[in-house]
Fold this protein.
Amino acid sequence: MHFMQSLKDAWRRNDSLVCVGLDPEPGRLPASIAGDADAIFAFCRDIVDATADLVCAYKPQIAHFAAQRAEDALERLIAHIHDRHPGVPVILDAKRGDIGSTARHYASEAFDRYKADAVTLNPYLGHDSIAPFLERADKGVILLCRTSNPGGKDFQALDCGGEPLYLRVAETIAREWNGNGNCALVTGATWPEELGKVRAVVGDMPLLVPGIGAQGGDLEAALRHGLTAAGDGLMISSSRAILYASGTSDFAQAARKATDELRQAVNRHRG
Ligand SMILES: O=C(O)c1cc(=O)[nH]c(=O)n1[C@@H]1O[C@H](COP(=O)(O)O)[C@@H](O)[C@H]1O
């Protein structure tokens, strides 16, 4: 199914705008699981199985797996989500971006190898670097626009003919790159007013919003500036605050509780 349709269905079915980020940190896995040969897979699988009715998407972050030589665990994790929790879209957080001939391999990596429903990308190399992803019309193409980190402003806020670069990025993607209706943007909750400016130029395009929880972003302000008239349009992403809500053997139940609390906090601000 088309990523955008899966996302809309999951927003509605689970009454949730929460995306759980799957960022396994080897030093933070609970002792009850850390010794297992397949600890990274088991940890993420248990988090997924405890939260799948509460989320609109999962977002595994590829470096957290690759740095541990756990790409195989990532493949199996995504297959597990598709098998056991069909209809919950998986966003591969890879932030790729390269010339077209290489980008084709990155697109194949995300969609054919890992079987992700969407991927995060860096638009800095321009349209031809993103074209191999855009042409996969059923897949989501989620482009960095106003990132959550402190250095996000170094380039993204630079004046670009009377407007900041990140807004030029948003306008160009909405107007010129979204012919297949498969684009979304990353706008951090740490910059809620900028998020609102992006919303004003992209209509109802979905926004992936990291930065709440561990990065201290303002959830209430992000929702005020980012919700669409229909009360959705956002993927509010949280990783560490959910994954490590408890450092012990009850980690999956604690993750469920943290996910549900975030879901309810978000829903209090929806129409
Ligand atoms: O594309 C992303 O997901 C992303 C974009 C951004 O601007 N900021 C950001 O933190 N992220 C990712 O979102 C996750 C944030 O994790 P927590 O701060 O633990 O919720 C990490 O996996 C980051 O790589």
Summary: The chain has one domain: 3-267. The chain has a mean pLDDT of 97.
